[in-house]
Amino acid sequence: MDSSGLPFPVTHNKLSLDIKDWGICTSHSAGKFEMGNKTDIVICSYEDHFLVIATQIGSMGTILHARKEEGMSIHSTFSVNVIFGKRDEPMLVACARQLIEHISARGTSKQLLLSLGLKDHSMETLKGVVSAVVENRLW
């Protein structure tokens, strides 16, 4: 472990929050809920992509790659691929798609690398992750 005290050399946000079935509560503003799952999120901005890590289990979990397809169509097309992990979880793909749509809507063409290590893959949990990432975005 580096103890030099130098700042992390990549632009990033990190936060910790409790995600419950009905929404999110930031741990620093309203305390812990009994039934919430502590979720650590790190958002990094690199030259050509964003890295978002959201974990409740302390590991990377499923890793997805999302990007906006460039083409002649007037409608935006997005591509989401599972790089490693659970390939049979459509909600994880939907989460990545929502985030790449947010990124694209802000005018950047950077791609997204998303790591989701979650205890459950319910719609409410994934909405909480998307909401927290968009509120603390670097794009």
How would you sum up this structure, described in words?
With 139 residues, this protein is an alpha+beta fold. Helices cover 24% and strands 38% of the residues.
Question: What features would you highlight for this structure?
Answer:
139 residues; alpha+beta; seven-stranded mixed β-sheet; 3 helices; 7 strands
Protein topology:
Layout: E1 11-20, E2 23-26, H1 27-30, E3 37-45, E4 49-55, E5 62-69, E6 77-84, H2 90-105, E7 111-117, H3 123-135
Parallel strand pairs: 4-7
Antiparallel strand pairs: 1-2, 1-3, 3-4, 5-6, 5-7
Helix pairs in contact: 2-3
Secondary-structure-derived class: alpha+beta
Q: Determine the mean pLDDT.
A: 86
Rounded to the nearest angstrom, the radius of gyration is 15 Å
The SSE string, one letter per element, is EEHEEEEHEH
Give the percentage of residues in beta strands: 35-45%
Ends: how far apart? 29 Å
Q: How many alpha or pi helices?
A: 3
**Percent range of helical residues:** 10-25%
Basic shape: globular
The stretches of 5 or more residues where confidence is low (pLDDT under 50) are 26-34
Strand order of the largest sheet: 2-1-3-4-7-5-6
How many distinct beta strands? 7
Largest sheet features:
7 strands, mixed
